[in-house]
From TrEMBL:
InterPro entries: Cell_wall_metabolism_enzyme, Dup_hybrid_motif, M23ase_b-sheet_dom. Residues 91-180 form the M23ase beta-sheet core domain. Keywords: Hydrolase. It is an enzyme of class 3 (hydrolase). It comes from the Bacteria. CDD domains: M23_peptidase. Signal peptide: none annotated. Its EC number is 3.4.-.-. One of its GO terms (molecular function) is metalloendopeptidase activity. This is M23 family metallopeptidase. Pfam families: Peptidase_M23 (PF01551). Gene3D superfamilies: Glucose Permease (Domain IIA).
Length: 223
């Protein structure tokens, strides 16, 4: 009996030692479990970050109501012949916003950047050429009848939504490209319109860029 009792107490003592010795292990486990939960929580918060809008429409009216663009030429292939030689081309290198849809109203910067040039060219009319820090280029052309319709000057920094000028012509043509593309026509006064007839990747769809950005921010684009 005594032997059995001592064996039992030895067993109990051993179990107690093992349990006691393993306390730090539980502690580590609990701590690591806590750390993991913390990491997971952190990841979740990151996902919920609000997308900062960096692009916007050039006219306020585009935010206010759904506008169907019927009269102006959209970006890409159109039914208007824009060049006959050496081959016929139906490619439109920008997006036309007509006064019948947006009114003779203020033109706002669609993206932040620095005004590279304000000038007149026979094919572009008076135009505003903006270069952005992130490598995009915006060209506002054909919409300004007088130099007084343009509110910015060369070298000026413009913010998204800043007033560029006022549409006084029949429409404004908004062109967007990247600085890493060959978009400058060096033969014609270095105007920003090289390959205006050719869909070779130089010109990007302005509405797509603007609306993709608005969509990321949970806003409702017009199209
Ligand atoms: Zn156009």
């Amino acid at each position: 009996m005594k032997k059995a009792e001592s064996k039992l107490s030895l067993c109990i003592a051993l179990i107690a030692i093992i349990l006691f010795a393993s306390i730090p292990l539980w502690h580590i486990d609990l701590n690591s479990a806590r750390t993991q939960t913390h990491v997971v929580k952190k990841k979740k918060t990151k996902k919920r970050e609000i997308h900062q809008v960096t692009w916007g429409y050039p006219f306020k009216r585009l935010y206010e109501k759904k506008i169907k663009f019927k009269s102006g030429q959209k970006f890409g292939q159109t039914d208007v012949i824009r060049r006959y030689y050496p081959t016929k081309s139906y490619f439109h290198d920008g997006y036309d916003l007509g006064f019948s849809e947006v009114g003779h109203s203020t033109v706002y910067a669609v993206h932040a950047g620095t005004v590279h040039r304000v000038k007149y060219a026979p094919s572009l009319g008076l135009y505003v050429w903006v270069i952005s820090d992130d490598g995009y280029v915006e060209i506002y052309q054909e919409g300004f009848l007088s130099i007084t319709d343009i509110y910015v000057k060369k070298g000026q920094k413009v913010k998204l939504g800043q007033k560029i000028g006022k549409l006084t012509g029949s429409h404004i043509h908004l062109g967007i490209t990247k600085t890493d593309k060959d978009y400058i026509d060096k033969k014609h006064d270095h105007t920003p319109c090289k390959y205006y007839w050719k869909d070779n990747g130089t010109w990007l769809n302005p509405m797509k860029i603007i609306e993709n950005d608005l969509r990321k921010a949970g806003k409702d684009p017009i199209q």
